[in-house]
Design brief:
By secondary structure, this protein is of the alpha+beta class. The protein has 2 domains: 3-51 and 271-403, no CATH class; 83-258, no CATH class. The protein has helices at residues 3-15, 18-54, 85-94, 129-133, 145-149, 159-166, 209-217, 235-249, 265-308, 310-318, 323-360, 368-394, 398-403; strands at residues 60-65, 69-70, 73-74, 98-113, 116-125, 137-140, 154-157, 175-178, 181-189, 204-208, 224-229, 260-264. A 6-stranded mixed barrel has the order 4-5-10-7-9-8. Helix 9 (265-308) crosses helix 11 and helix 9 (265-308) packs parallel to helix 12.
């Protein structure tokens, strides 16, 4: 039989009961739509996480101070204050492949400018911090090494903090008070967006770490140390050398736990995306179940169709149709059901992902590969679940089929 004739007969058979055909395709539509939506949202979330990780800078290694446990309460990294300025200087001086180091002091405080005030994050950093983070300035300049050595009262302000305190007027040259200590703003940062943890990176005020320690917090230890390696190929080596150096400096003997944590960007990315991968697999499993249910629906309706059209099959065989012609006809109808359902499901999935992205302000990235894969899978479902009914139809005896009431 010619392909065109087969397709015409298949279309006529499916149009005979449109409600039944639509309900049969529903499982495939839901399954394919769920897969496309899940892949689009997942790809968008992955791209967003990668962008957030990239906002840390390139080839960055983060050294965190140890944690504290009191009364069964674990306070987390950075709470023990086990890192010192000498540790940061030692890393800069003794670890090959390290190009810049920025000791970090982190605290939160109410800041004031004129009659305005705002609670923001205060970062005490080295002069290389913005270069290490690849964070450009919108205007002004970064404080210098001389400012760090002299614990000078200078600051670089983030976009969110600047907008809250100064509105649209310029912040450069203005005086901002941190715990009644006046600092002069010498630079304003370009917008950075959300951090890996979901916080606003632009809601920040950066001052020399020496100024933070002497004039704001009064602490003598560091929360963390930001380290930049010269190349991605030396990150693993530099990470291990930093661990060895700090264990030696902190006099940590064999068999004892470190009082610090050293993490790379990739490790942070893996930790952040771990939960996302589990959820993606769960959603994929649910979508696959829906596709299988849709396939079973196709098999069921095709078996009903074989029973309803038994006399038709007998007549076609009596006038010369062969078993393979009948098999091809019913298999084509099953594949048509699944392919049309898959096409509608793709459209539904793309539309749903864009609506969800718009409502929740999530990115949604639909790639051609996932659409092609969904289309192929829907066709395979038609073949797999339509094969048995088609074989059953092709195996009918013409005489018995003609006698069927």
């Amino acid at each position: 039989m010619r392909i065109l004739a087969i397709l015409k007969i298949a279309a006529r058979a499916l149009k005979r009961n449109m409600l039944r055909t639509t309900l049969t395709m529903l499982g495939i539509i839901i399954g394919v739509g769920a897969v496309i939506t899940m892949v689009s949202i997942s790809n968008g979330a992955k791209a967003m996480v990668e962008a957030q990780i990239a906002s840390l800078g390139q080839n960055v290694i983060l050294v965190f101070s140890g944690s504290v446990s009191r009364g069964g309460i674990h306070t987390g990294w950075g709470s023990a204050g086990t890192l010192t300025i000498e540790d940061a200087n030692g890393i800069q001086r003794e670890v090959p492949g390290v190009v810049s180091v920025s000791p970090e002091v982190r605290t939160g405080s109410q800041v004031a400018a004129g009659n305005q005030n705002w609670a923001t994050q205060i970062l005490g950093e080295g002069a290389d911090y913005l270069e290490l983070r690849q964070w450009p300035l919108a205007e002004g300049a970064m404080f210098t090494d001389q400012d760090v050595r002299g614990a000078n009262k200078v600051a670089v302000i983030g976009k969110t903090t600047s907008r809250q305190l100064y509105g649209d007027s310029g912040a450069i040259g203005q005086v901002i008070r941190i715990k009644s200590v006046p600092f002069v703003i010498v630079g304003e940062l370009s917008p950075k967006g959300l951090s890996v943890q979901g916080g606003d990176q632009d809601d920040v005020l950066i001052i020399p770490y020496t100024s933070a320690m002497k004039r704001v917090t009064g602490q003598t230890n560091l929360r963390s140390i930001n380290v930049q390696a010269e190349d991605a190929s030396v990150i693993a080596t530099a990470q291990q050398q930093i661990i060895d150096l700090l264990r030696q400096r902190h006099r940590i003997t064999q068999g004892h736990d470190d009082d610090f944590n050293v993490r790379t960007q990739q490790e942070i990315a893996d930790a952040v995306t771990g939960t996302q991968k589990v959820m993606r697999l769960l959603l994929l499993a649910i979508a696959c179940v829906s596709l299988v249910v849709g396939g079973i629906g196709i098999m069921n309706i095709m078996l009903v169709s074989v029973t309803e059209r038994t006399r038709e099959i007998g007549i076609r065989m009596a006038v010369g149709a062969k078993g393979r012609d009948i098999l091809t006809q019913f298999l084509t109808e099953a594949v048509a059901l699944s392919v049309v359902g898959g096409g509608i499901g793709i459209a539904v999935g793309v539309g749903a992902s864009r609506i969800l992205a718009a409502i929740n302000n999530w990115p949604a990235l639909t790639d051609v590969q996932s659409i092609a894969l969904a289309f192929v899978v829907s066709a395979l479902i038609g073949i797999v679940f339509g094969l048995y009914p088609a074989q059953k139809a092709s195996a009918l005896d013409p005489i018995d089929a003609l006698r069927f009431e």
